[in-house]
Amino acid sequence: MKSFVKLRISGVGLNLQEISDQLGLAPDQAYKKGDACAHREHGGEAAAYHEDCWMVGLESDEDMTVEENVERLVSMLISSSVYLKALSKEHNVTVWVSAYPDAEQANIHIAAPTIAALSEIGAALDCSTLFLKDFYDGGPQTASGQ
Q: What would the pLDDT profile of 96-120 be if each residue is shown by its tens digit?
């Protein structure tokens, strides 16, 4: 099952450079409250972000399970657990898992040691699944095609 796993730190008043320095990672995406959302249009006017955000992520390798991908990200972060746990007291620290199953039934298993490591870094876990066909076709259709 293809997956993407991201560390997402969000809130108001984040020091984006400090996060990069403390984690030793460059973000895939970072923005401040009020920055324009170039990819979102609403009524002809660009929207603005409502909070600051710093994100870094990993795409799964060919034969990697979702849990292995989560473990890979967590292992990159565990050395910064004291910093992340302190940050999580004022901001949202989330490991965000997006999985794309090939079949209707899929299981995302996260073992106890991985859950303990997520707790140690103060991170919540969000999981979402979506068939890529549904994504590219604009969402699931009803039986009548409407």
A: 998 887 777 778 889 999 999 999 9
